[in-house]
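Aim 2, interim progress. The first record below pairs a target sequence with its structure tokens.
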Amino acid sequence: MYRWYYILAVSSNVWKVRNSFGSEAIRTEVASKVLAIAKEHNIYIQSYIDDELLVHSETEFSRLYEEITGAKAMYVGDAIYEPQKGTNKLLVVEEPERMTEVIAILSQRS
């Protein structure tokens, strides 16, 4: 079983990690910070921009998400780490034993 967490932006320097999501858009500068942390720590993260699901590359997590939601991922490589505009949401998917570490990493950086 995997754990799914959404990143919710609160301001340009602060974000909250939670297992549900709101309707607030995540500004480009905040998304860039979160995505840079994900890249640095090899955290699986995917993004929705203009209702397009953006993923670095195909993985077990991306395939599972596509299967569950019916969404079709666009595999964009390292471009995922350099958003050109705000994102509707960021989603982290990890094994339960790693999710505690991931939450701590993201919480320390907020």
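The second target in this work package is listed in the same format:
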Amino acid sequence: MSLEKLSRPESLAEMAQRELRNAIIEGRLKLGDQLSEIRLSRMLGISKTPVREALMQLRREGLVQIDPQRLTGMVLLGIDSPLQSIVVGTVLVIAVWLDTVYRKRV
């Protein structure tokens, strides 16, 4: 008798983090855009809590900057040069690829 291992489904925060990261990489969210947790939660169709968790992780990764003066505000980081844009974009593409590979293995 054999059973397949169950995989843990992605949390809403993980799904929001992936979608926001992809939106940044693909340019759907532009550098310097100011977006609120409320607006992002409406765009994603989920509550603010998973959006907040996703933003905190993206902040740790250096992709977003949260403005402490605005409780629900966030500002995407600006990039100074085209070379930095290429480096950041490459790193993000690799991170998404590694995340996808890892999820297929688990």
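Helices lie at 12-26, 37-44, 48-60, 82-105. This observation will shape the mutagenesis plan for the next reporting period.
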